[in-house]
Each structure stands twice: as C-alpha cells, then as structure tokens.
TrEMBL record:
The protein, known as: Uncharacterized protein
Organism: Hyalella azteca
Pfam families: An_peroxidase (PF03098)
Entry GO terms, CC: extracellular region
Compartment(s): Secreted
Record keywords, A-Z: Glycoprotein, Oxidoreductase, Peroxidase, Secreted
GO molecular function terms noted in the UniProt entry: heme binding; peroxidase activity
UniProt record, GO biological process: response to oxidative stress
Length: 287
C-alpha cells in the first residue's frame, strides 16, 4: 500500500494500517479494482480471503440508455486560461501540419539516398516486427499533428503544465482545421445478429469502445513534464527523477538464472498476447 512520502501524507490515497473493521466498509475491493477512484480512497479494509483491500466509493450505475463513462472521464482541474481565438488555434494547428510535413519530407530524402536499414539485419527484422496497418498509421499521424499543435500553443503563449493538461481541453480540435483528425462513430445496426470482428458497434452507446486500431482510453489523468507530452523529470516531492536506463539497470539485473519450471516460450506467449492488444505505430521510414 501507499506509505508516507517525504512531503507527508498524500491526500486521497490509502495510507496502510488502520483497516476498517469487517462490515463497516460498504465496498471492500482489491486496490486495482478501484483505480479510477483512487484519489477518493482513504481507508483500507480486509478482503474475504484475508488480503488487504481498499474501501472504494460506490457510484450509482448509469440508467438504461446511457453509456458508463466512469472509467473514461479524466479528472478536471480549474485553471486560469486566456481565451484563444479560432485564428490562434488554427495557426497552431497549421504549425502541427507543417511539422509533420517536414518529418515526411526528411524520411523521403533518407529513403531516396538509401539511408535505410540494410535488409536481413537484426535491426531491419525488428523494424518489420512493428509494421502496422495504413489505418493505424494515419491515426498516429493525426495524433502527432494534434500533439504538435498543442505544443505550439504551449510554447507560444508560455502556458504552465497545468494549463497544458487541463486548459487546452477547453479548445476542442473539432472546431479547428484538424477537425477531420477526430474519429467518427460509425452507424450501427442494433439488430445485427453477430458482433463485429474489429469491435465496431459492440457497444451501441459508444460504438468505438474496444475497436481495433483506435487509441486506448485513460483510466487516470496523464502527468507530463510540460503538460502535453514531454516525460516527467521531477517527482511529487520536487526531487529530480533518475534516468529510465538507471532504473531499468538496477531493477532488471542481467544474470544467468535458469528457471526450472518455465521456459522462454512463456515470455514469447505473453509478448504475443500483449502485441495483439497493444501495438504503437513505429517511426514510419516506409519499407
């Protein structure tokens, strides 16, 4: 469970110890089952199997005909934000388009000059492993355009990370020249006999939920360094975070320690399942 940080108790997080007596916690669940409401949890409890759980708030279920958005609604913060005119938003969006155009031109120049990975090399094989469909590639490019537009607004108007995370959401992309980048819900046939193979319309209230080649929804709000996309460099206490490589090298120690029960096939199977669910587009460099 969460302990005491250097800055003291973390509000809204279970602190461990002082578990609620059995019967006094209306919804005692494993902590993972309460992830979307973790900020509201303050008390631990004992699960039926004697394990440690948390007292999770119970929210009313949505009425019939309404989608359940409890897991897909990010926590909002009220931040002071100047009003951005449609011209200013579109100007930033145009910069996003221009940036991606420059990247595409650079890739074309590299390919024209044969500055590509040699065929039949390990690096080339690894790149082929991350090949994605044209639809996924287009979705990735659309997201990058919006990301670059957001970063342009962030830098031009010197927005704070909080303004980048919460303030920019007041200016939806649907009202800009990047409106075509927004996914559109397809028409659904509520009388269809079978579910679709790609997940489309399996949820009639939210036809894109669970659809292949779409982005994942967030359960918890993102915490970026600049409020848009850069990695965090500071912890919640303000101290500098270690480099990712340092963390990985200290946790994943490279040593010869054969397992007597599981073979490497277990890892390969898990990776196959993982890549079937999640597959982020790689830098294109068309092959």
């Amino acid at each position: 469970m969460y302990g005491i940080s250097e800055g003291g108790r973390r509000p809204g997080r279970p602190q461990g110890g002082g578990a609620a007596p059995v019967g006094q916690c209306g919804n005692c669940v494993p902590i993972v089952a309460c992830a979307p409401l973790l900020e509201q949890v303050s008390t631990t409890c004992q699960l039926p199997d004697a394990g440690l759980g948390v007292c999770c708030p119970v929210l009313p279920k949505p009425s019939v005909g309404q989608g359940d958005n409890r897991l897909f609604t990010l926590r909002r913060q009220q931040v002071q934000m100047r009003n951005l005119s449609p011209h200013e938003v579109n100007s930033a969006c145009q910069k996003g388009l221009s940036f991606l155009g420059q990247v595409t031109d650079l890739e074309s120049q590299l390919i024209a000059n044969n500055l590509v990975l040699p065929v039949d090399t390990p690096a080339h094989g690894h790149l082929k492993f991350f090949r994605v469909t044209r639809t996924a590639r287009q979705a990735d490019l659309a997201a990058q355009q919006v990301n670059q537009a957001s970063r342009s607004l962030l830098n031009e108007f010197r927005l704070s990370p909080a303004q980048g995370t919460h303030g920019l959401r007041q200016f939806p992309v649907r009202n800009s020249i990047l409106a075509d980048n927004c996914p559109r819900a397809p028409p659904c046939n509520p009388r269809a006999k079978y579910r679709s193979i790609d997940g489309t319309c399996n949820n009639l209230e939210n036809p894109l939920y669970g659809k292949s080649e779409t982005s994942f929804q967030r359960v918890m709000p993102p915490v970026y360094g600049d409020g848009v996309s850069s990695p965090r460099t500071r912890s919640v206490t303000g101290s500098e975070l270690p480099l990712e490589r340092v963390v990985a090298s200290n946790i994943l120690v490279d040593r010869d320690d054969p397992d007597r029960e599981f073979t490497l096939s277990v890892m390969q199977w898990a990776q196959w399942i993982d890549h079937d669910l999640t597959h982020a587009p790689f830098a294109s460099l068309r092959m």
